[in-house]
Specification:
heterodimer; A: mainly alpha; Arp2/3 complex 21 kDa subunit ARPC3; 8 helices; 0% strand; globular; B: alpha+beta; 4-stranded antiparallel sheet; 2 helices
């Protein structure tokens, strides 16, 4: 397959999935979003955006494409406090908006971020609702591993087999960043007054 | 009752993740300890298409013109490196000279991949 074809297919596919799910989770005439909730989701989304942007300015730790995944703190908070629908909304908007802000939305890097976000959010949401008692650290860890898988999947389409050599290293690092992000989120969720404030209304 | 089942879930979780981690580490050790032969030639691809096929025994400098700018590839003494690239992070330049078959230098930003190939008779994939 030629490069432009892959480009077109990947971008078309990703945006089609995003549109489909958006319609699926926001049915017509839905009025469950109060003004208060919209405002709080907006704040959490902008926190995710700032963390995501900030992170993209940091030097890589030791491999290309390696990030801490700080924005996942915000996404996990939304998933835990508001549920799948709002979590998905924040996760996808974060991936698209960070792409727009960095100017990398319609490039390989942007597709990698989108695919990683899709896959990691999907797996986190499934695990969170299928295994209610699973710890937040485990969920964050799985999400971080699947984020790497999504990214590498897209990179594989563009660059071919050489990229797979990075996979075990990226997974290895993602293991520890995932645990770290899970720990931070857990600590934030233990701040009961803050959580109560976010959930109110 | 609820507490004990939560505990059990956490233990299962811990074991599963530990197994995954052990799997990754074992794979890394096994892949890292494999003997690598030195490369004979290198294939340079830009956006999925082969641009150059370089013989590593000849010292040379080649340029790949990409959308963002020139990627300069240098072959010296059986080793190959990307010496200049327009990307902001300069990962590919930072990789330095490589010579083992199966090694690769990837400039993901521009879509340039340098893949070092060994003797064609040995069909083995090294990571």
């Amino acid at each position: 397959m030629s490069y432009p074809t892959i480009h077109a297919i990947v971008s078309g596919l990703l945006f089609a999935i995003a549109l489909f799910i958006t319609f699926l989770i926001f049915p017509k005439g839905d009025s469950s979003l109060s003004t208060r909730k919209i405002a709080r989701l907006g704040v959490l989304l902008s926190v995710a955006l700032i963390l995501g942007l900030l992170e993209s300015f940091l030097p890589p730790i030791f491999l290309p494409g390696m990030r801490l995944g700080l924005a996942n703190i915000s996404i996990l908070l939304v998933l835990y406090l508001y549920g799948i629908r709002d979590g998905f909304f924040v996760a996808i908007l974060k991936a698209i908006l960070v792409g727009l802000l960095r100017g990398s939305l319609f490039s390989m890097g942007g597709y990698m971020a989108l695919a990683g976000t899709f896959l990691s959010f999907l797996i986190m949401a499934i695990l969170h609702f299928a295994f209610k008692q699973m710890s937040i650290i485990g969920i964050s860890l799985t999400g971080s591993l699947f984020h790497v898988l999504g990214q590498i999947g897209v990179a594989y389409l563009f660059l071919g087999t050489p990229i797979l050599g990075y996979l075990p290293w990226l997974l290895f690092i993602a293991f520890f960043t995932g645990i770290g992000i899970g720990l931070i989120t857990k600590i934030i969720l233990m701040r009961t007054r803050f959580v109560a404030y976010l959930k109110k209304g | 009752m609820k507490n004990s089942s939560a505990k059990r879930t956490h233990i299962i979780e811990f074991v599963v993740f530990l197994l995954i981690l052990v799997g990754i580490v074992v794979y890394l050790i096994v892949a890292g300890s494999g003997k690598k032969e030195s490369g004979v030639s290198a294939e340079v691809t830009y956006k999925g298409q082969v641009v150059y096929s370089l013989n590593l025994n000849e010292d040379q400098t080649q340029k790949v013109i990409t959308q963002e700018g020139e990627v300069v590839i240098n072959v010296k003494g059986g080793k190959i490196a990307v010496t200049s690239s327009p990307c902001p992070n300069q990962y590919c330049v930072g990789q330095g000279y490589k010579s083992k078959a199966g090694d690769s230098i990837i400039c993901a930003h521009e879509g340039v991949v340098v893949l070092i190939k060994g003797d064609e008779a040995v069909e083995e994939i090294h990571i």
